[in-house]
Specification:
The protein is an all-alpha fold. About 85% of the residues lie in helices and about 0% in strands. It has one domain.
Length: about 160
């Protein structure tokens, strides 16, 4: 009875990791489109000589634009990595393999979402969008916490031992 309950919990956590990974992948897709558009704008601005500002500020603005472009590229790459890791964690939870990997991903999602909720990382946005993001990050904290709690149970540890 207890083993069946743990199996159902792991399957549910796996599905929820798939759903969260889908949301993160959708965000990463939008971020990739923004990255491409900004890349085109920065490239056109860097190559064109007829666009203001005055020439003494041009080098500073172009350098700043490229620095922002590099940070956006890093952000896009990390977002895609998080989405892929969430999908892999969901799969491993359902297969009852890679318990340590799933624990690490749960810690990352919990910590990342908690830092965003505390306001230590993240960007300000309009209130309508911010409410949606807050709900998303609250769900991420809860999912990470429940994943950690579930994976640390002795009965779940035994399920992972059986799967080896």
């Amino acid at each position: 009875m207890n083993q069946e309950k743990d199996i159902r919990r792991l399957n549910l956590l796996g599905i929820l990791h798939y759903v969260l990974g889908g949301f993160v992948a959708a965000f990463a897709f939008v971020e990739t489109i923004a990255f491409a558009i900004i890349g085109v704008i920065v490239t056109i601005f860097s190559l064109s000589e007829n666009i203001p500002p005055p020439s003494e500020w041009r080098g500073v603005i172009v350098a700043t634009s490229w620095i922002a472009f590099v940070f956006l590229a890093i952000s896009v790459a990390l977002t895609w990595c998080l989405a892929i890791c969430l999908f892999k964690s969901g799969r491993k939870l359902r297969q009852r393999k890679g318990r340590t990997f799933s624990k690490v991903i749960a810690c990352i999602e919990f910590t990342l979402a908690f830092l965003v909720l505390l306001g230590l990382i993240g960007v300000p946005s309009p209130n309508e969008i911010k409410i949606g993001f807050v709900l998303f990050y609250v769900a991420m904290v809860i999912l990470g916490a429940f994943t950690l709690i579930t994976l640390n149970k002795d009965s779940v540890k035994e399920l992972y031992q059986v799967g080896k």
